[in-house]
Specification:
single chain, 24-stranded antiparallel beta barrel, Immunoglobulin-like, 9-stranded mixed beta sheet, 818 residues, extended, Carboxypeptidase regulatory-like domain-containing protein, signal
């Protein structure tokens, strides 16, 4: 009886998601041994009941198909007590999509991390500059697949990935290989169709930039043959339209600074100014029109010469509230604020009053309108959207009753719409999958049945590199140079600094594209060539750069006995572990051994020859045990931890300069009160721990200091939030003896930063302006806030350090300055 009283509770199924663990309670079981039967893996299985609540822990495997699974407990030959677990369907897709790709293919990594099969559809999203053939595939639970998409064109690819009704759009920058800039491309459109009553039509259009200074537009139309053409180069633009009767339209424009002007045929003159305020004027034999705006207020008007009484004026204030006064066949005043809109005035036929309100919540939206113009009017429009469906209804009450009902369906690549009104029934069916689109329209009214069929094909036509260079070039300029070693060309050297790294050919030559503001080039030797990197700065107008790699030397360190390695002190400093190898500039070096406790080795000096590899053997011998006289120990303050390349300090209590030496080269020694402070640089190769030793006469004090990487300089931006066009100050403070610093801008340019001697040797500052073109590399944090990635680099010798930061950009808002 006790078990029967809890059976209703046991009959309830528990919901679970794949990957979860559940604890199932079984109350009311009498004492005694238990047998467990489970469709799910057991984490905790009871052996007996003590008369209380028995707990069973089960696991839901990540790939378990959705369904109902039972877990039962039985005592002897009695009836089993069972609990059911309802496993949910969990569609989950993991997609790894690169943000940038070089070449004409894109590799995607897709994995089904859910417990149901997935049907995927990949296609270019509308507005994508790069196209690829749409693809459909399916993934079983747990299946991974690499997909390779052939790409057509370069620029920004908008990749739409549709899975189980959800669509994700990824933005990928596709660029050419070999460090070439993105080619300019003409956007092409071929469209045509047939409409009953109007006949067939066809249109072909090309439009786009062919260089940084030139733009082209071309269109052919039919059935009445017409040609439209337009060109723009520098500040000059021209265009015309030729039809069956000859030239029907023509224009010639000129732009200089904030001013622009244009002469047109049929006769007209346009003048414009775009500065802190906007001004527009158009004069033709028929009318004069003008407008003036400053971002808050706007005044516009038009005067038709043949009908002066048709003079119109309008004064507007933008913002909230939006206010206006207009004189257009009557006098009217209007306002809009929040969801309210209103207008009142006097027309030639009498007083006019209009009032409306729009609002909504969730997927529901509505609009109410009431007014008076010769009689009262009332209108209501409401809509509800629950993707992929949408519903609308409208009602108009006035001199006559009018209503309408509409329904729509949209789920890529299909769209469908129907509309019913007193005038008839209309509808459309559309299929759109870039670069193709097809639309069928129909309408049934008092005039009979009419239909139309329309289609379009969009494409992009790349502009050849030679044509672009002849018409003004790219935003980047071509740069050719050579890489040499001891006057001989180097094949396979890697050259960095352009849009992408490139390699030299058999004659040591390279070709890349660099920003017009200049570039810092860096050449790295190929594998197997014993040389050090070379750097050079170049600006347009400079001769072709020759990057001469400096011959290098190599030292391989072998050890006998208890040794860790040795510090090399010469033109540069380095730590070489036992059995290790270091590539260094040629010259004289001193080797300071680093021994294990209880061992020592003698310092050595030697000369490393260019293009040669030397092997050095250090013998570490045990220290002799001898009684030392009692002496007062050195009092030394050691750094708690250091990073490779960092400038750190050691404080020796009660010591003076010249009396104390350090096991590493001292950059600077100075007194602070009665103490001596020694500044030294941690070797860039240091790792794990660094042995420091201070000597004062016969006294020695040593310490193993932990070594762990950390950022070696800070990047500060002022303001931290900026708008497009605003200037930003960049400040870099390094923790190592940086010789120069740069800021990598989003367009690929390197901004040199100036040193600040008054703030220390390793502080740098610079300024740049936030340009509209930077926003293509920004990440959207919200509809009104972007994050622009920036990277700063600082150099000491052949060593570089980097730090990244993000500048918050308000595309249309105020800056982040207080």
């Amino acid at each position: 009886m006790r078990l029967l009283s809890v059976l209703p509770l046991l009959a309830l199924a528990l919901a679970a998601r794949p990957g979860e663990a559940l604890v199932l309670p079984f109350p009311g079981l009498p004492p005694g041994p238990l047998e467990v039967a489970s469709d799910l893996p057991l984490l905790l299985a009871p052996r007996a009941s003590d008369g209380g609540v028995v707990l069973v822990a089960v696991e839901v495997p990540p790939r378990l198909p959705p369904g109902t699974y039972r877990v039962c407990l039985r005592q002897g030959s009695g009836l089993p007590a069972c609990r059911e677990v309802a496993v949910e369907a969990l569609p989950r897709l993991a997609a790894q999509v690169p943000r940038e790709v070089a070449g004409r293919s894109l590799r995607l990594a897709l994995k089904n991390e859910g417990n149901v099969p997935l049907s995927l559809h990949l296609a270019p999203e509308e507005g994508s500059e790069v196209l690829f053939p749409p693809m459909a595939l399916s993934l079983a639970p747990g299946e991974e697949r690499e997909v390779v998409l052939p790409l057509f064109g370069f620029g920004f690819l908008r990749l739409a990935l549709l899975s189980e009704g959800r669509k994700e759009v990824y933005l990928v920058r596709a660029r050419p290989e070999g460090g070439l800039p993105l080619p300019y491309a003409l956007a092409g459109l071929l469209e045509g169709g047939y409409a009953s009553g109007a006949g067939a039509f066809l249109r072909f259009a090309l439009e786009g930039s062919v260089s940084r200074e030139a733009r082209l537009a071309l269109a052919l139309e039919g059935p009445a043959p017409a040609l439209r053409a337009g060109v723009e180069a520098g500040g000059v633009s021209a265009g015309l339209k030729v039809g069956e009767k000859g030239v029907e339209e023509a224009r010639l424009g000129l732009r200089g600074g904030p001013w622009e002007g244009q002469v047109e045929y049929p006769p007209a003159l346009k003048v414009g100014y775009s500065g802190e305020a906007l001004f527009r004027l158009r004069l033709s034999p028929e009318a004069l029109s003008a407008g003036l705006a400053d971002g808050t207020w706007a005044l516009s008007g038009a005067l038709p010469f043949a009908r002066p009484e048709g003079l119109s004026l309008k004064l507007e204030r933008y913002g909230d509230p939006h206010l206006y006064a207009r004189l257009e066949g009557g006098a009217y005043l209007g306002l809009a604020s929040g969801g309210w809109q209103g207008e009142g005035g006097l027309s030639p036929s009498g007083p006019v009053l209009r009032l409306g309100y729009t609002g909504g919540e969730g997927g529901f939206a509505y609009a109410l309108r009431a007014g008076y113009q010769g009689g009262p009017t009332l209108g209501l429009q409401a809509g509800y959207a629950r993707p992929p469906f949408a519903f609308t209804a409208r009602l108009e009450l006035g001199s006559a009753l009018a209503f309408g009902l509409g329904v729509g369906y949209r789920e890529a690549p299909f769209a469908l719409g129907l509309d019913l009104s007193p005038s008839g029934l209309s509808g459309f069916l559309e299929w759109r999958e870039a670069p193709y689109a097809l639309r069928l329209e129909g309408r049934r009214d008092a005039g009979g049945l009419r239909f139309g069929l329309f289609g379009s094909y969009a494409f992009r036509l790349p502009v050849p590199e030679g044509l672009t260079l002849a018409l003004g070039g790219y935003e980047e300029v071509p740069l050719e140079g050579r890489v040499e070693l001891l006057g001989r060309p180097v094949r396979g050297a890697r050259v960095e600094g352009g849009l992408a790294p490139v390699e030299t050919d058999g004659e040591g030559r390279f070709r890349l594209y660099a920003p017009r503001s200049g570039v810092r080039l860096r050449a790295l030797p190929p594998k197997g060539v014993l040389a050090l990197p070379a750097e050079a700065s170049w600006r347009p107008g400079d001769p072709p750069p020759v990057l001469a790699l400096r011959p290098a030397s190599a030292l391989r360190l072998q050890c006998e006995g208890g040794g860790r390695g040795a510090y090399l002190v010469g033109e540069v400093g380095a730590f070489v572990p036992c059995g290790g190898r270091a590539v260094l500039p040629p010259g004289a070096y001193r080797l300071t051994p680093e021994a294990l406790p209880g061992f020592r080795a003698e310092e050595r000096e030697g000369v490393l020859r260019p293009l040669a590899e030397e092997e050095v053997l250090l013998a570490f011998a045990p220290l002799p045990v001898e009684a030392l006289p009692e002496a007062r120990p050195l009092r030394v303050e050691w750094p708690l931890g250091v990073a490779p390349g960092e400038v750190a300090r050691v404080r020796v209590r009660g010591a003076s300069p010249g009396e104390v030496s350090l096991s590493l080269p001292v950059l600077k020694a100075g007194r602070q009160g009665d103490d001596l402070v020694l500044l030294f640089q941690v070797p860039w190769e240091a790792e794990g721990s660094l042995l420091l030793e201070v000597r004062h006469g016969e006294k020695r004090e040593g310490r193993l200091v932990p070594v762990s990487p950390k950022p070696l300089f800070a990047l500060r931006l002022d303001p931290a939030r900026a708008r497009v066009g605003e200037e930003v100050e960049v400040r870099v403070e390094a923790l190592f003896p940086a010789e120069e610093a740069f800021l990598a801008l989003p367009n690929g340019a390197l901004l040199p930063l100036a040193p600040l001697p008054e703030e220390g040797r390793w502080a740098f500052v610079g300024r740049f302006r936030v340009e509209e073109g930077f926003l293509g590399r920004a990440e959207a944090l919200s509809p009104s806030l972007l994050a622009l990635p920036l990277k700063a680099r600082a150099r000491q010798g052949e060593r570089w350090a980097e730090v990244e930061a993000r500048l918050l950009v308000l595309p249309g808002g105020a800056s982040g300055k207080p």
